Amino acid sequence: MVNERDELGPDLVPDYMTSVKDGAFYGWPYSYYGNHVDPRVMPQRPDLVAKAIAPDYALSSHVAPLGMAFYHGTNLPAAYRGGAFVGEHGSWDRSPLNGYKVVYIPFHDGMPSGPAQDVVTGFLSPDNHARGRPVGLAVDRTGGLLIADDLGNTVWRVVASGK
């Protein structure tokens, strides 16, 4: 999970998840999300920008993904097995606020394979004030999803209905 750079606008730059390849160059600080040049960085390095690889999966801008847990448990619905839960801590410099939730990203053959699905929301009030900020995720020994909320000073446990 990568928290990308700020101050390029409310819709740039998308935070992302990516695999790490030995010897690969991911752009920092010369470019973002592959070969998109950051005009603020001087001197420019077009030789490195040309080598920058794009990430595997884009999240939204400024969601601040701080926690990720792959799910292999059996407590939650089978549709969640094999994918990743991501805790989006939330934006600090974007209006409207963005993130402040836990999403699920399906995987197939070891790669993200579909759109992020909201799983745990409600961390923002109807008037757009933060009530919680998911930061760390883990799966407990029973297959429940644990969510550390550093604003609410709470650890939430998510299990299937009736368990």
UniProtKB/TrEMBL annotation:
The keyword Iron-sulfur does not apply. It comes from the Bacteria. Transmembrane segments: none annotated. Keywords: Plasmid. InterPro entries: 6-blade_b-propeller_TolB-like (IPR011042), Beta-prop_PDH (IPR054539), Quinoprot_gluc/sorb_DH_b-prop (IPR011041). Residues 52-156 form the Pyrroloquinoline quinone-dependent pyranose dehydrogenase beta-propeller domain. The keyword Magnesium does not apply. This is Pyrroloquinoline quinone-dependent pyranose dehydrogenase beta-propeller domain-containing protein. It comes from Paraburkholderia largidicola.
